[in-house]
Amino acid sequence: MAEMVNNEFLIPNRVASSGLITLDPENFRPKELIGAYDLKQNLYMEQILREKDFRQFLASHDWTQYRGKHMAVFCSVDAIIPLWAYMLVAGHLQDFAKTVHRMSLEELETELWLKEIDKLDTDPFLDKRVVVKGCGDNPIPEAVYLALTLRLKPIVKSLMYGEPCSTVPLFKKAGTLLTDPS
After folding, report:
1. How far is residue 22 CA from its own chain's centroid?
2. What is the b/e burial string over 131-166, where b = at least 16 CB atoms within 10 angstroms of the residue's CB?
3. 178, burial (CB in 10 Å: exposed 0-12, middle 13-18, buried 19+)
């Protein structure tokens, strides 16, 4: 109900007074440098890895460009890559990269995102009503939402998805899944 103050009607902000805490998954986006090494560039006709050519390339390649980065090593085409090829690349990257992973760039970014969520101090959310923000300017992997749910559900009073003005209820303190949104 609107109240009159100084001859003006003030409409109460129910969202602000609701006690909801909004958690933006964007806050967990990795801030460290991420890079990728695609073995496709070393394949002859995108099909075959020639050992001699590959070793020559590795010896002359500028590995310093990967300094301090978390590196994803993969092959983006359907080709049989011998295991030793990944080992050779890892050996060269190890001297410069922060970490080296055998996965796609997207998988590496998601893994780093999940590591940030693992660091989340959950004390401020204990027995609180939490909304995991659902809209943003950049895409967020589904795994991030799953990880936030698993991290928060055991400690929050209730967990919701969306925006404070329009939420989808997910869990209540009893831990029961809400199947009826009404």
Report:
1. 18
2. bbbbeeeeebbeebeebbeebbbebbebbbbbebee
3. middle
pLDDT tens-digit map of 133-179: 987 788 899 999 999 999 999 999 999 999 877 888 889 886 555 55
CB of 117 closer than 8 Å to CB of 144: yes
Q: Other C-beta atoms within 10 Å of 89: how many?
A: 22
159 neighbors 148 (Cβ within 8 angstroms): no
Q: How far is CA 118 from CA 106, 112, 149, 175, in A?
A: 19, 10, 12, 21
Amino acid found at 147: A
* pTM confidence score: 0.76
Distance CA 21, CA 60 (A): 53
Query: Per the structure block, which two tokens stand in for 170?
Result: 């997910």
DSSP one-letter string for 60-121: HS-GGGGTT-EEEEE-SSS----HHHHHHHHHHHTTT-SEEEES-HHHHHHHHHHHHHHT--
Phi-psi region of 19 (alpha: psi -120 to 50; beta: other; left: phi over 0): left
> What is residue 54's three-state secondary structure?
helix
